Amino acid sequence: MTENPESREGRDLERVLADLRALSPDIRSCAVLTREGRLLGSSHPEGVDRERARAMLEALVGLVDEVARENGKERALQARVRTELGHVLLVRLEGGAVLAATTGLDARVGLALYDMRNARSEVERAAKEAA
Amino acid sequence: MRRVLGRVLLLGALAGVALALRRYLEREEGGEEVAEITFDDGSARVLAAGSAEGRELSEVARKLVELGL
User: Fold this and answer.
1) CA distances from residue A17 to A1, A60, A106, A127, B33 in whole angstroms, order as listed
2) 3-state class of A75 per DSSP?
3) How far is the alpha carbon of A7 from chain B, nearest alpha carbon, in Å?
4) Dihedral sign, CA of B6, B8, B11, B16?
5) Closest A-chain CA to B35
6) pTM of the full structure
7) What is d(CA B48, CA B25) in angstroms, rounded to the nearest whole number?
């Protein structure tokens, strides 16, 4: 039986993101939003929740980039947003994609961002293959 | 008469201090950091919870944390 290369590449990104979660246990969930607005590596199966997560992440990245433009910058490289439930962390990838993660309220956010930046090249490679 | 005037002035001063303290505390609350954004040139901007941008970002982020990725 021949394995579908697309699904193998998707699993590669899932493995890279699973490694990131294992390395940084404060990260509750993580995924990649491509420049075209596709959500890769999400823990949600295809359906309403995945589409909602995609749309909200796209909106958040749009707001962050709007702040960048208002400040005369081309774009944001990294962002952390605190809420009463936890944090959302964003790290820009090559080509305009974004690695996003959610954490709890008591997470060591600096450490999680450090791990996300360290995983960036591997995530970029796997996301490029999966896209 | 002088005693009454003194008390009125004291009450006025106390009310002024209370108002100033309340405004200071409200300013501190509004100034609570909610987001930090680092730009491509290495500079960063911190957004306060009281700002329109901060509130908007926090609201979308809260839904995302709730739902998960």
Assistant:
1) 27, 20, 21, 10, 29
2) coil
3) 19
4) negative
5) A81
6) 0.80
7) 14
User: How much of chain B is helix, strand and coil, in % rounded to 5?
Assistant: 65, 15, 15
Q: Is the ipTM of this complex over 0.90?
A: no
Tally the domains of chain A.
1
Handedness of CA B9, B14, B15, B20 (dihedral sign): positive
Torsion on CA atoms B40, A61, A23, B66, rounded to nearest 10: 150
Q: Which CATH number do you get for residue A18?
A: 3.30.450.30
Domain limits for position A120: 5-130
Q: Which of residues 26-85 of A touch B (CB under 8 A)?
A: 28-31, 39, 42-44, 49, 52-53, 56-57, 59-60, 63-64, 67-68, 71, 73-85
- The tens digit of pLDDT for each residue in B24-43 reads 554 444 568 899 999 999 99
Closest to A20 in 3D by CA, of A79, A95, A89: A89
Which residues contact residue A85 at a Cβ distance below 8 angstroms, ignoring those fewer than 6 apart?
Answer: A105, B62, B65, B66
**Encoded tokens for A75:** 């774009």
